[in-house]
Amino acid sequence: MYSKGNQINGSFIVMVCSISSSDLVSKWMGESEKLVSNLFQMARESAPSIIFVDEIDSLCGQRGEGNESEASRRIKTELLVQMQGVGNNDQKVLVLAATNTPYSLDQAIRRRFDKRIYIPLPEAKARQHMFKVHLGDTPHNLTESDFEHLGNKTEGFSGSDIAVCVKDVLFEPVRKTQDAMFFINTKDDMWVPCGPKQRGAIQTTMQDLATEGLAAKILPPPIMRTDFDKVLARQRPTVSKSDLDVHERFTREFGEEG
């Protein structure tokens, strides 16, 4: 994440405007520059405010490239003018931007950002917390030790990787319910899949229960640590060592550690 702007002090409300690069692109001649200008004007009128641009590399790539269009050049020029104006006018507007490909940024755009901060992959404690956040209120029997195990086991995983992992795990109780051959009828009159040796186990299937009109009373089992182990056995991190090397090299040349 890369940031620019003056320090905002005091306990007052700050307006935050989060946009993607596509929000500033229009097929109509001159409309994109107007959108950029209006965005900064709105931020100044509502100061103190923060403008956050996600995937800024798709909007502000290197100028002079063969596939660069005239419209793209005009957008970059307008963005450069507006960002320089924020600093010169000493207004309480903070501009943040994020990119996964910092080397593709235009040099002039890069210079507009006073801080170029490298945000590394989450550490074990952060990954442990992410698993908790993504699970939310979903029924599970994981202990604090289990979450610590997951945090340590997912070295090199990004926040997105963890989100994908949890989404996959959420289907495990459904798979177990669909494949179950034995169910137990709980005190709440709910049918929960179980093993054949569990006390009170009845040999039946989800399809049989549905046929008997009990589909609404079928309760998938809570998520277990083994469900995560099963998913993690086939999932790999999406960020490679070479990807990290690029960011670390850029940080050594132009940025600073987060």
UniProtKB/TrEMBL annotation:
PANTHER family: AAA DOMAIN-CONTAINING (PTHR23074), PROTEIN SUPPRESSOR OF K(+) TRANSPORT GROWTH DEFECT 1 (PTHR23074:SF159)
Sequence ranges assigned to domain ATPase AAA-type core in this UniProt record: 14-121
Statement: the UniProt record of this protein carries the keyword Ubl conjugation: no
A Pfam family of this chain: AAA_lid_3
Entry-linked SUPFAM superfamilies: P-loop containing nucleoside triphosphate hydrolases
Record's protein name: AAA+ ATPase domain-containing protein
Single GO term (MF): ATP hydrolysis activity
Keyword entries, A-Z: ATP-binding, Nucleotide-binding
Domain Spastin/Vps4 C-terminal: 191-255
Organism: Papaver somniferum (Opium poppy)
